[in-house]
Amino acid sequence: xVSTRFQKVAVxxxxxxxxxxxxxxxxxxxxSGISIVTAxxxxxxxxxxxxxxxxxxxxxxxxxxxxxxxxxxIALAKQIWFHENALKxxxxxxxxRLSFALSSWEILGRVYPPALTKLQAIRxxxxxxxxxxxxxxxxxxxxxxxxxxxxxxxxxxxxxKALDALNPKAARMAIFYVKxxxxxxxxxxxxxxxxxxxxxxxxxxQLYELNLQMAExxxxxxxxxxxxxxxxxxxxxxxxxxxxxxxxxxxxxxxATLAKKQIDDPEFHKELDAALTxxxxxxxx
Length: 285
Description:
By secondary structure, the protein is mainly alpha-helical. The protein has two domains: about 5-20 and about 40-190, no CATH class; about 195-275. It has helices at about 5-20, 40, 55-70, 70-90, 95, 100-110, 115-130, 135-150, 155-165, 170-185, 190-195, 195-215, 220-245, 250-260, 265-275. α13 runs parallel beside α15. The two termini are about 25 Å apart. Residues about 1-45 have low confidence and may be disordered.
């Protein structure tokens, strides 16, 4: 039986995978520079009050529309409100909150610097609390997502290194969220320090199988099945490759054999063979 923890992780990954269809309004194109922000552009943000029965997706869409219309302060107020309240109202918005919502916030920050400053301040606060061992699960999840959005994954690796030195027990709780950053920074020794190879592979397989089961439901569909396969392929090849470059070739070969049995696909088998030579794939998604 798959544990409740796996179910929660599966739902988080699911929303990240299929959340694109739930965001109806996006800012068109990418800004080429910083706009001139006038008082008229930013007026009203402090006066914005959420409705009595707020619809999360509507408010997120409105924030993006406000940004497009240069109502920057109102857009930022709605982005902040969404980030702080989404999980209180609907846990199913977890993936959207840490993907599309952060992306639109970062785009707003390109044309309205106070938005970027606020997002960085939230990130810095998360890191400070994490170093104290506070709110490790949600805290590192948000920290990693914000750094990924800002293109600053190295900050996640640095924060985790500090946590590892101060509180290894706490670091073990946070490892799930920082592995992609550790892969990018090539901190393979630290990656493996908190990796039980067989257990981690079993978890990846269980999550893959759970997502495939969920994908059979119409409300999830093929998007989740495709995401599940790509996630499993990337996770298993990454584990094999890191074991290979860390001179743990027997374990690497064992995991590669198990993964090949799980998905009988020639292209995937080529990826695993490359991983056995030490070719580490880019993190997914």
